[in-house]
Amino acid sequence: MLAQFHIDSPSINDNRSYDYANHPELDRHEYSIIIDLVKQGSRVIDLGCGNGTLLSRLKKEKNVVEAGMELSESGVSVCKQKGLNVQYGRIDERLPFNDNTFDYAICNVTIQMVMYPEILLKEMKRISRCQIISFPNFAFWRNRVELLFCGRMPRKMLFGYSWYSTGHIHQLSPDDFRTLVNDVGNLRIIDRRSPIIKNFFKRVVANLFPQLFHMVFVYLLEKHESVS
Q: Burial, 16: exposed, middle or buried (Cβ in 10 Å; 0-12, 13-18, 19+)?
């Protein structure tokens, strides 16, 4: 019989249970890229919207009609305090929205943290005309070096967490993501971007070998129906 253990509290260095109560604002480098991809006045849903910072910016800068879903109760609470239309729920199951309800469905650095990323992408395709997905690139060169020479799960793209204390459960690369898009079907990649690297030399090298030297990718997808 296996022994049963009770964990009184999670490790300090643990990101499996997000608490946004003390972090109502958190800007990220990829937000500006996502905002640039969204057209003025669009209907937008942010899946895994966290504390709602991206939604707030979209509402202010692009005058979008916003909606959001978030699994963290503290995130939902913070979003509602900001006046955002956000509801509690999982995003990798059947979503409570009709087909083509939105112009854009956004999932920012969250697809690698859900149990069923393929269901998430299928649902994004179902409820929206365009999909914006970003994720950390697990094929980043430092990860490759650490895995090759240290023989352990790289910590660079786990943002300092250990393999057991992170919500990043489905690490992926751009090639992996393209495979997922093809498997889901009836989606085409319209654009791919990454946060700008300020150093000129590093930027040139990263653009030549993006899968090695870009840490985050943002994809814009568009739904297309197959013709029978």
A: middle
Residue 3 reports pLDDT greater than 70: no
Q: Which long-range contacts (CB under 8 A, 24 or more apart) does 172-179 make?
A: 172/111, 172/112, 172/135, 172/138, 173/137, 173/138, 173/139, 173/211, 174/137, 174/139, 174/210, 174/211, 174/217, 175/139, 175/211, 177/133, 177/135, 177/217, 177/219
Which helix H or strand E contains 202, and what residues bound it? helix 200-208
Mean pLDDT of the chain: 89
Rounded CA separation 107/135 (Å):
9
**Residue 101 region by backbone torsions, left for phi larger than 0, else alpha for psi between -120 and 50, else beta:** alpha
Helix, strand, coil: what percent of the chain each, to 5?
Answer: 35, 20, 45
